[in-house]
Amino acid sequence: MTQLPKVVTKRKKRLGRGYGGGKGGHTVGRGQKGQKSRRNIGVLFEGTKMKKSFIKRLPLRRGKGKFKGKDKPIIVKTRYLDILPSGTTVNLESLIKNGIVEKQAGKVGVKILGDGEIKKKFNITIPISKSAAKLVEKAGGKIVK
């Protein structure tokens, strides 16, 4: 006869699944009556008589992706630009080629922010913050728009 290890953890009891779910029968752990004891409540449900609900307060957007926010650009700090050789034109392609950002950055864009020091000269063609622009110009680089 083989010796099986003793099972220490028990399975989670599944709500609303009848006798076989491990909770027992009848109300199966949902209490009695009321909205929460029945099916699920919609994510956007805020009660019945809401005068100014959250959805009504949002600006009207139609179609797919209605509740998604805008994608923000990927931030590249100036200290990461030291990986690049001096005199390079800093654009999306050069950042992807040198492994600073991934290929998906083309969808949302890239912005350079000033954090750290720059010792090399760069020609920058992508969006850049004012503080980062000062650091680039101090090192002898140019911002091309």
* Residue runs with pLDDT of under 50 for 5 or more positions: none
| H and E order | HEEHHEEHE
Structural class: alpha/beta
Whole-number radius of gyration? Answer: 28 Å
Fraction of residues in H or I helices = 10-25%
Number of strands: 5
Organism: Candidatus Woesebacteria bacterium GW2011_GWA1_39_8
Protein name: Large ribosomal subunit protein uL15
InterPro entries: Ribosomal_uL15, Ribosomal_uL15/eL18, Ribosomal_uL15/eL18_sf, Ribosomal_uL15_bac-type, Ribosomal_uL15_CS
Subunit structure: Part of the 50S ribosomal subunit.
What does this protein structure show overall?
With 145 residues, the protein is an alpha/beta fold. It folds into 2 domains: 14-61, no CATH class; 74-143, Ribosomal Protein L15, Chain: K, domain 2, CATH 3.100.10. It has 4 helices and 5 strands; from the N terminus they run αββααββαβ. The chain has helices at 54-57, 92-97, 105-108, 130-138, and strands at 74-77, 89-90, 110-113, 123-124, 142-143. Strands 2-4-5 form a 3-stranded parallel sheet. Strands 1-3 form a two-stranded parallel sheet. β4 (123-124), α4 (130-138) and β5 (142-143) form a beta-alpha-beta unit. The chain is elongated. The relative contact order is 0.11.
Put the structure in a nutshell.
16% of the residues lie in helices and 10% in strands.
